[in-house]
Amino acid sequence: MFFLSTLEESIRLEPKDLDKPRADAISLVIEELFVDKIVQDLGLVVTLYDIVSIASGFVHHSDGGPRFQVVFRVVVFRPFAGEVIVGKIKRVSRAGLHVSLGFFDDVIIPEHYLQEESMFDEAEQLWFWKYVGEDGQENKLYMELDEDIRFKSKAVRFQAIPTPEELRKAREKDPLIGTAEKPLALMEVIGEVYSEGLGPVAWWMDDDEENEQMPS
Question: Does Zinc appear among the keywords (predicted)?
Fold first, then answer.
């Protein structure tokens, strides 16, 4: 889920920061530029890990702030295919489930990746799994908002930052796109819950407890 990645960037320091230790000042700029940001085709940068090297700085004649070519390592979030993760159900629609990990909110579980015999309850606006128990009784197991859900990562999908023209055309179809209510998702994790043991964690609590109590 998390891994180290090495990046290289030209980092500019403000003249007012030149009295600070160079590595500290550069670290602050890197954190501002990269931490909590999506790097295209890489993932979500969680934190700066370390600075590998800082080349000699240079100053353009029209700019008082020196630039340094910096090689550094960052901790990146991007789950691999098949990784099992636990999040919380934050939004539900006919299209599926929207899950949050706390630090990352763009996990999508499409309706075709829910359990077989999953149905959408129009009155409750929730999905449920129509489950037949060993006694032959039919049960409706609902997927509730804010409930912990265990899912398996299928893929990670990146979207480039749209141009102003692309954003204008998208807003003609949906005026909320790119607003605080519906921010752009530059990275989405696609998950599934149709495999055994996946879905709301509460569904499998008894099985998990029995496994923990089994003698080794």
Answer: no
Sheet of 126-132: strands edge to edge?
118-121, 126-132, 138-142
| pLDDT tens digit sequence for 182-201 | 567 899 999 999 998 999 99
Q: Taking a C-beta distance cutoff of 8 angstroms, is the pair 187, 39 a contact? A: no
27 with 105, same domain?
no
Q: Position of tokens 């991007």?
A: 78
42: containing domain: 2-77
What CATH number does the domain containing 208 carry? 2.40.50.140
Dig out the tokens for 14 from the structure: 């403000």
d(CA 136, CA 115) in angstroms, rounded, equals 18
Distance CA 126, CA 147 (A): 12
145: how many CB neighbours lie within 10 A of its CB?
13
What gap in Å lies between CA 57 and CA 15, rounded to an integer?
13
Distance CA 78, CA 1 (A): 5
Q: How many domains does the chain have?
A: 2
